[in-house]
Amino acid sequence: MLDISELTVRYGKLTALEKTDIRVDEGEAVFVVGPNGAGKSTLLKTVAGLLRPAGGRIAFEGQSIAGGAPERLCRRGLALVPEGRHIFRTLTVEENLLVGMMIRRDRAAVQDDLEQILGLFPILRERFRGVAGNLSGGEQQQLAIARALLQRPRLLMIDEPSLGLAPLVIDQVYASLKELNATGLTLLVVEQSTARVLDLATRVYVLRGGKVVLSDTAEALASGDAMEEAYFGYAGQADA
Amino acid sequence: MMQKSSVIACLEKAWPVLVLVLPLLVAVVLADLYGSVLLKRTVTDALIKIVIVVGLYIFIGNTGIVSFGHIGFAGIAAYFATWMTCCAMMKPITMTGLPDFLRLETYSLWSTALVSVAAAGLAALLIGLVLMRLSGLAASISTLAALFIFHAVYANWDNVTMGRASIVGIPTYVTLWVGLGGAFLAIIAAYLYQISSYGLAARAARDDEVAAQAAGISLYWNRLIAFVISGMVVGLGGVLQVHFMGTISVNAFYLNLTFLTLAMLVVGGMRSLAGAVVGVVVLSTIADVFRRLEAGVDLGATRLSTPTGTQEMFLAALMLLILIFRKDGLMGRRELRLPRLRAGRARAAQ
Question: At the top level of CATH, which class does the domain A2-232 belong to?
Fold first, then answer.
């Protein structure tokens, strides 16, 4: 579904990603983990069209999308939940969700989707007319995910869904993601913490210093310490 | 029952407009019935300012980008209205650079208003196509640069604008009621834009550019739409202004009017349509009171007056106080909504 090959992204002279290869197949939940400054957020922003790559190829469903405008990529079925719970703080929850539906043409199905998503995140129904800036951190994360889901994406990219959230709330968010993945939605998730990754991931990539240093299936990684070793830099280069 | 609820829903939807236009209507009726000529002129001037400030709000309030250049669009529309309606005898001699269809003809006031507003919209489109690629402070400063360009061109285009000289003999048809009509139009246009998907997209981008782009919103096109609509509404204000004063000079559409109208918007609340209207009403009222005090008030045998410049000092102090204690302006970010019906619905929901 998503095929990234030799992707290089630079901020001026600083190289954030260097010749990175990542693949996401349909229905998978692929996690990219790594420490601060590994290039995880840069990766998602580049795929979503918010950053222009300096080199390499990004193909979505067989078509090159590198450097495309974000609004066009949204219409092609890519949705990004940016890091740090980017919601529209002065708008109501309802208006936040309306923004998510803006790119939809199938107006009839939108209402059904909204009902379904409010079923998945019941707290948003309770706070429907409230100002989004007044929501708690976990509720804001749910709102950001709900808004992205209303775009009816085929690939949902989430940047650090557990950032700054209490453990109980992280459980809720991960349970929702698991439910979404079980319905067939493909996920590409970026996380700094490796704690819960293997509960949901089908495949994991470890990024360090802008390079993939490890990639394997979650099943294979569950049996050893390879992920932690790669994450902290104990392991050598990738054996992907 | 269903009819009743649909009436309530309609009323609730129209309320933010009704609650603004009805007090204006009452004020105009009272001024028309009981006001002096001076008061009528003051109220008409305030109504024209409402048109301009509401026009500013459409762009600034929804996109969050402060524009210093919109008064240029008022000027463009005002000069268009001048060229199309003024002084049939004088134009061929003093404005020789005008094309024949403007220099030798005069047009009806309504068609002039439409063409002038369209001209302001076209100018906003052309300038916006370039400037709306910018964000934040860069966009704000670039609008100021656009105002400087407008002023420099119009102040030196002697055979078309008569340079810095005033043009007189422009028909004056803007009364209290025409001013009220203009204010109604501006408020309705701003509200319709605000509740449209374009307005929502602009406010989303104002809140968070990254999230808006991630949600498929084009920052550029949504800001451009807001820029053009607000340019047209401000242009309408320019047309009303020139047909109210009966005279025009390039300095009337420059920094003084820019900062006065921006001050009105800041005082009322930059992010609220009600704030735009309230800001004009409050500052116009205070300015008028101090103008009268500066002219002198008779108290029996003595005549008291405040020193010249008190008005400006008081207005500046008021702005400072509001910026310090209510940085979102008098209205904050709120619109005026139907309180009782909302309370009733909340109870029903419980």
Answer: alpha beta
